[in-house]
Amino acid sequence: MPDGVRLAVDVHLPEGTRPGAHLPTVLVTQRYWRARVLPGAPDNATNSTAEAWNARGYAYVVADLRGTGASFGTLTAELGEQITADSGPLSDWIAAQPWSNGRVGTTGVSYGGDTAVLAASLGNHHIAAAAPTSYDFDPYEDLVRPGGIEIQPRIAPYALLLSILDARAGTTCETSDETRALCGRTGLTGATPRPVDGPDGPALLAAARAEHAGNANLVEMAHAGTYRDYRDGPKNWTSGSVGERTEAIEEGGVPVLTLAGWLDAGTANGVLSQFTSLDNTQEAWLGPWNHGASHLADPFLPERALTQQERAALNERAYAFFDRYVRDGEQPDGRRQLHYYTFNEGQWRTTTRWPLPGTRTQRLYLGEGNTLTRRRPSPGQSGQGGQGDQSGQGGQSGQGGQGGDLLRLDPTAGTGDLDRWNTNLGAAPVVYPDRAAVDAKLLSYTTAPLGADTRVTGNGRVTLDVTGLAGSAHGALHVYLEHVAPDGRVTYLTEGQLALENRALAEGNPDWRRLRTPRTYAGADARPFPQGRAESVTLDLLPVAALFRAGDRIRLTVAAANPDSFELLPANGDAGYLIGHGGARPSALDLPVVR
Predict the structure, then answer these.
(1) How many Cβ atoms are within 10 Å of 346's Cβ, its own excluded?
(2) Nearest Cα residue to 396 out of 189, 513, 203, 555
(3) Cα separation of 414 and 423, whole Å?
(4) Looking at domain 360-594, does it have CATH number 3.40.50.2300?
(5) If we measure between CA atoms, which residue out of 589, 284, 265, 302 comes closest to residue 456?
(6) Do 424 and 154 contact (CB within 8 A), yes or no?
(7) CA distance 141 to 132
(8) Which terminus of the chain has a smaller tally of CB atoms within 10 A, N or C?
């Protein structure tokens, strides 16, 4: 690299490649080691993904990011400025090889997808296309701190995995029972990064890995970076945000192919933010997949691994995209298409606009008896100063008070071990069981059976009239959109959450946040939630596409915690709220409905 740091790179070429071959190149920059060596296993550097690209006439280049694998350097920040910048010199080096046609396509999954699309902001004239899968458009809002709340139970094992990969503080697979189990699940037991070729490879690997001991600690940043404007030297939330780089990406004009799952953390929100804010040529796919698109993740169908044919079809989209722009050098024409799948219908549709043409907002009001109705409550009903049944321990008060229901934080009412926030660790499946039992511990509001099919597609929004009770000053709210079948089964569709100290609305919104409520998540705008006085609180639902058939019911469930995936706010788990309905600020659910 320009600063002298040496990166470990594997170059896979089609058999028989000679100088002057003019090959298009696929570039992957990898956080999780470009290749592994296992004890007793032959080190022939095979890579099935590389072989597939080679068979199509591409060179395939995969590099360990600086500070990782067999590369030298120290990682001063996850998704920091320097690792993005390194893709520029790497692309220049590729273009200078005697077998290159001078064009590079960046791609990758998860972290590699993040670096692939961030590379499009560099303005490097050799980078001709980007095809990220399951990438994090904005790491703060879409992954680590949705609504300003840390995904604490999920980030801790992931950070431990990074420590094992980097041998940070001497951490290895054999450090503890926890590390042994984690290595077993991720295939790291006994593995080491593949050294570079040649007799000096092992010594170079040892020297490089010694520099990784000082790598940044993700848990420390996740804890310390409470607000979006957090900055500690090179560690910050903005350098790895595609949203913060949209102007540079537009200026570079690199066409982008994106593939993500509706139930993969907040990646669908990122895909739609990208689609609506970038003028670049785009092809986007939102489907029923987990993180990495290895498993079916449709809450109305049994979970299963994708078939070989299904995975091949997904790969073909990237092949065809790169054939146009990396192999053939086609000039981007500004076309933008989004292909999306609808839950409970199993249908794919294509659009060039988002929100979809013809979308209308259907408002459903929270009402007495835990109802959701299109009829606005009468002004006489008010959650302001209501005296809900404050003796409950976390369930519904329903009829309590003058238009208000009591909600207490229940540290047992979560979304399960295999929810959308867990799939990022090891590309785990996404499975939501019947939510009826959990909903009984929370506040749920349900419509009467629908008289006609209703298709919800896009970003919903929830507005609640909230009175804070004891413990609420630094509390949080979580909301869930659910489908209730005629037989009573409750199916999770999507959710939203907000640390209440981040409730302040901003006067304006960056273009990349146009689908989201104007909000800064800045430390200067944070303030404790008042007790004993009602305030209106707006929460964004993550986007979804789902069909409610005639006879089904729509449900909104409100919680004060999701202990399976988020930190408890407050930490002692003791807080209460009165959720009002009626009065001047009635609580309501706004859904984007299309024909």
Answers:
(1) 12
(2) 555
(3) 16
(4) no
(5) 589
(6) yes
(7) 18
(8) C
Crossing angle, helix 177-186 and helix 152-166, to 10 degrees?
Answer: 80
d(CA 233, CA 102): 36
Helix (H) / strand (E) element for 204: namely helix 201-210
Residue located via tokens 């993700």: 218
| Secondary structure string (H, E, C) spanning 481-526 | EEEECCCCCEEEEEEEEEEHHHCCCCCCCCHHHCCCCCCCCCHHHC
The Cβ of residue 46 has, within 10 Å, a number of other Cβ atoms equal to 10
How many angstroms separate the CA atoms of 493 and 172, rounded? 39
**pLDDT tens sequence across 119-157:** 999 999 999 999 999 999 999 999 999 999 999 999 999
Query: What is the CA 152 to chain-centroid distance, rounded?
Result: 15
User: Residue 432 pLDDT > 70, yes or no?
Assistant: yes
Pairing of strands 9-12, 100-109: unpaired
Unique residue bearing structure tokens 């540290």: 411
pTM beyond cutoff 0.85: yes
Q: Locate the domains of the chain by residue range.
A: 9-260+308-323, 360-594
Domain 9-260+308-323 has CATH 3.40.50: yes
**Cα 117 to Cα 256: distance, rounded to the nearest angstrom:** 8
Structure tokens belonging to residue 146: 């949705």
Report yes or no: 586 and 366 within 8 Å, Cβ to Cβ.
yes
CB 248 within 8 A of CB 117: no
Placement of tokens 């189990």 in the chain? 181
Question: H or E segment at 205?
Answer: helix 201-210
Please give the Cα distance from 572 to 249 (Å, whole number). Answer: 44
- The 10s digit of each residue's pLDDT in 285-337 is 999 999 999 999 999 999 999 999 999 999 999 999 999 999 999 999 999 99
